[in-house]
Amino acid sequence: MLNVPPQAFPAPSSQQRVAAGGRAKVPLKPGRSLMDWIRLTKSGKDLTGLKGRLIEVTEDELAKHNKKEDCWICIRGFVYNVTPYMEYHPGGEDELMKAAGTDGTDLFDQVHRWVNYESMLKECLVGRMAVKPIAALKEISSTLSEEKKQLNGMLPEKKVLGASAKDLTPSYDWFQTDSLITIVIYTKQKVMNADLVIVDCQDKRLRGEIIVDDHSYLVEVDLDHAVQEDLAVNIAEKVGKVEIVLKKKDNIHWKMLGQPLESHNTFIKRMDRGTEVVKPYTPVLPFLPLDFKEPSRYDGAHIYLMIKIYSCGLFTQALDHLQIGDYISVSNPEGNFKKSQVQTSEDLFLLAAGTGFTPMVKLLNFALTEVSCLRTVKLIFFNKTEDDILWRNQLEQLALKDERFEVQFILSQPTKDWLGKQGKISSSLLSEFVKRSRKDSKVLICICGPTPFTEQGVQYLKDLGYSQEEIHTFTA
User: Fold this and answer.
1) pTM to 2 decimals?
2) Which of 271, 274, 280, 359 counts the most CB atoms within 10 A of its CB?
3) What is the DSSP letter of 14?
4) Residue 94 to residues 64, 108, 138, 382: CA-CA distances in angstroms?
5) Residues 269-301: tens digit of each pLDDT
6) Number of other residues whose CB lies within 10 A of the CB of residue 33
7) Is 54 in contact with 127 (CB distance < 8 Å)?
């Protein structure tokens, strides 16, 4: 019998394990476990003492609540009444009292940075921290303390839109781990998606722009230290929170985010901003030919694009309002796909999600027209609903015309009348549809869609034994 020693938790190298002499857990009273706390938060009891109201908390007001029986703490610009949580805190009441009546963000990050405090203390939320407006941007960069005021506070007075708009003005905050810098932007919008977020970081200069109706909010900073080229943007769509995650080049502690640039932390009309918006699009055919002949109008004077108009999209709304005779700028072609990858293949699999179908249009036509060695061409097309399926009729007709071609529609939000496959991209689903026609056949798998779809798809394919050379990703 194999004896496996029990694993220590947290792991010795985990952030959740503090150094010798650091915070230790204290015995809790019966009925004060994490599950007991969760039950209390769901009981409907008023844990803030404000009967559901949210307020703006001044520094003076926060400082008044500094006792065990009346304890408020500020974390990242939000104030929580942690009095009812005192007896449930694994680190004991004394640890919480270290931040009583003050901004406890730094202390929290030292000990608890992995904890989802927003969820755990949601029912204890008193409101936002109110900080006096800062008169000039130069004052923001002069000291670390003033940088913190800017992080947790409102816009400088000259850049506030007015009393009616102030409550809707976005704000931001930042925190760090040993290897990451995370900038959190609170948009105060109930609907937020990737089309409304523009982020760029070059040579330590970070620029993040959030589109809010006809205004835009800008975070523009000359970063304190160098970061790696790749960054991540996470969007909590339902609560309107945007996270920009940067990887440090050197694992050192940053004293401040950086020097604010001229337009940093401003919220103004987009027409006054002058922002250029660029989106990648893939030219398609005007239709999917069923007789496998190139369209005759390919004279170099026309470009056909397949564009889905989103009601809250920044770029597609602008395109939708263009009139005949209006102009847009078009870049030179980009990309690294080579037709030779198809010409040497025997099985071609195309994985597309939504408008990720666009690069597959010309690829389908080329494969079925000019590549005689192909035995199978299969399109696995992922969408939310039936109405989202682009060119469904043409694809079904094409499948009837050419026995080499097969199309499989997969919906993630089907109606009860849908008889086809449903679900999202997964290893089991791909193992069902992506199969070599022969054991040693040469395979090419092309994949295009939102970044999470593409990344998951590539990983699933590798898990199924396909090599990197057999996979091509079309990315924005």
Assistant:
1) 0.46
2) 359
3) S
4) 18, 14, 39, 53
5) 766 665 566 677 778 877 766 554 444 445 556
6) 13
7) yes
